[in-house]
Design brief:
A hairpin with a 2-residue loop joins strand 1 and strand 2. The protein has ten helices and 14 strands. 39% of the residues lie in helices and 17% in strands.
Length: 249
């Protein structure tokens, strides 16, 4: 399941999310919280969820930062990267054996941050022009905030692409890489797994392409009307995870 818009909205738990998680545990159903947000480490996210009244262990959280570091470690072990992002991304890359540098890196890695620096974006552009490979943690163009949408990784990636002519490789949802690694983490099979999300363009399409049942909740980005504009449909649409909690009782 996705996190923002499914279990929480900013720092507030979605009503019924605690009951939904409790019912999953009661049934001993393995689950994983997937997030394209690369700002936080799993430990940070577990603490954030706890503060919202939701009990999700670190081991049940998989972020686009972890997926990105795992991918880069498999592609170019002990490589180097210039990173635009926060602790969630830099920690994951360090743990994967990567060196963070501004001089001739193997990769420019773009992640989520609330304080994008024009100077660092300009340096990323120069490094890519000089041959660094361009990776982005996720393609989301916007993210939620109490005041409305905020530009996210996909929007900044588009700026860098326009300046360099180089498209990034996106590791997070809807890339099937993220879904396959998530299924492996809980030893699950696609035929008996569902993906719950609030975004048609990341959560639902990634679940669909990975062969999972897909459930759209209306507590985040997508609405019934906006969902109708896509050429694919979720398996079902529910108001929130509270509806799913009731089904598990």
């Amino acid at each position: 399941m996705d996190m923002d818009g499914v279990l929480v909205h900013e720092e507030t738990a979605i009503p019924g999310a605690d009951r939904f998680l409790a019912n999953l545990r009661k049934r001993e159903a393995p689950f994983l919280v997937l997030t394209n947000n690369s700002i936080y480490t799993p430990r940070d996210l577990a603490a954030r969820l706890r503060a919202s009244g939701l009990d999700v262990p670190e081991a049940s959280i998989w972020t686009s930062a972890l997926a990105t570091s795992s991918f880069l470690e498999s592609q170019r072990p002990n490589g180097s990267a210039f990173v635009i992002g926060e602790a969630g991304l830099t920690t994951a890359l360090h743990d994967a054996g990567y060196t963070l540098t501004e001089r001739d890196p193997d990769y420019v890695v773009l992640g989520e941050t609330r304080t994008y620096s024009f100077e660092r974006i300009a340096l990323a552009i120069r490094l890519i022009v000089n041959g660094a490979r361009f990776i982005a943690t996720n393609p989301d163009p916007t993210g939620p905030s109490p005041d409305g949408p905020l530009p996210a990784t996909g929007s900044v990636a588009a700026l860098i692409t326009r300046a360099t002519g180089v498209e990034p490789y996106y590791v997070g949802k809807p890339n099937p890489l993220m879904m396959r690694s998530a299924l492996n983490a809980i030893d699950a099979h696609s035929e008996t797994t569902a993906m719950i999300g609030d975004r048609m363009d990341t959560d639902i399409v990634s679940g669909l392409e990975a062969g999972l049942e897909t459930i759209l909740v209306l507590t985040g980005i997508s609405t019934v009307e906006s969902a109708e504009r896509y050429p694919y449909r979720p398996s079902r649409i529910v108001d929130s995870v509270a509806d799913l909690a009731a089904l598990l009782e």
